[in-house]
């Protein structure tokens, strides 16, 4: 992938998000409620939420991410130079990101993931793309996000994905997950890391990491790994914190974030 290898391109999405709390941790303790057939899939798929996903080979998301990947290629070089000679590094953003990576490397296991999640949540101010760039669909690379000191949820997720990889987490154990917030009616992105066979969500909306099985009020839509972006083949509604189901979305109504109609998928 752009930042670490020459694998397939990622894709970008429109997402609206802010640094808020989802709710008390106690509300996240119950199991998930999935659509028919999902219980069987959870035993077969290694992706977050246990659902199968299919690669996206075309569309606006793919084209958007090709541009982002080129920027990540450039940043990979800059970070390597700064990591080799920090005294002569001319990028405060690179030094800030590398310092977070250093703190993560000094820890192991869950503590490493938690340190990077917390540090990036604190380093970036929540700000919409429209407020920051005057556009509604901008995915920023990590050094751009750190230089601005602000971003929205996909900017947090990308920065965490990159920082975790630099801190030594295997790319096989890293994802970016795009979900539909069924309460707010908007899309939301988080980084995900697998630890001891369990996927933890690293969310800009909360400091505590939550396992995928304990997420509430979201519908998983897309997942990104080292090879590219995929659409979940099934998009079950994760149980609400109140125990009441949100009305399901028809399978053919799922639209790639950033698109205006299913015909643009």
TrEMBL record:
Residues 253-265 have a biased composition (Polar residues). Coiled coil: none annotated. Residues 245-265 are annotated as: Disordered. InterPro entries: Papain-like_cys_pep_sf (IPR038765), Transglutaminase-like_Cys_pept (IPR010319). PANTHER family: BLR5470 PROTEIN, PTHR39327. This is Predicted transglutaminase-like cysteine proteinase.
């Amino acid at each position: 992938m752009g930042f670490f290898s020459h694998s397939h391109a990622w894709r970008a999405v429109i997402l609206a998000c802010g640094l808020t709390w989802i709710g008390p941790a106690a509300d996240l303790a119950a199991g998930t409620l999935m659509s028919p057939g999902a219980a069987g899939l959870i035993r077969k798929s290694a992706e977050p939420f246990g659902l199968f996903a299919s690669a996206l080979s075309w569309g606006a998301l793919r084209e958007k991410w090709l541009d982002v990947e080129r920027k990540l290629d450039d940043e990979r070089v800059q970070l390597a130079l700064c990591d080799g000679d920090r005294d002569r590094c001319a990028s405060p953003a690179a030094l800030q990101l590398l310092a977070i990576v250093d703190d993560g490397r000094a820890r192991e296991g869950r503590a490493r993931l938690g340190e990077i999640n917390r540090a990036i949540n604190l380093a970036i101010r929540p700000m919409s793309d429209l407020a920051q760039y005057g556009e509604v669909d901008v995915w920023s690379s990590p050094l751009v996000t750190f230089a601005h000191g602000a971003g929205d949820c996909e900017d947090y997720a990308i920065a965490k994905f990159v920082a975790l990889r630099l801190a030594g987490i295997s790319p096989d154990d890293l994802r970016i997950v795009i979900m539909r917030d069924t309460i707010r009616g908007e899309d939301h992105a988080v980084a995900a890391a697998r630890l001891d066979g369990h996927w933890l969500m690293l969310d800009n909306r909360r400091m505590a990491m939550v396992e995928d099985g304990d997420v509430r009020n979201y519908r998983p839509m897309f997942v990104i790994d080292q090879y590219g972006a995929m659409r979940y083949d099934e998009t079950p509604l994760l149980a609400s914190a109140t125990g009441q189901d949100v009305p399901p979305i028809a399978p053919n109504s799922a639209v790639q974030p950033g698109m205006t109609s299913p015909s643009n998928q």
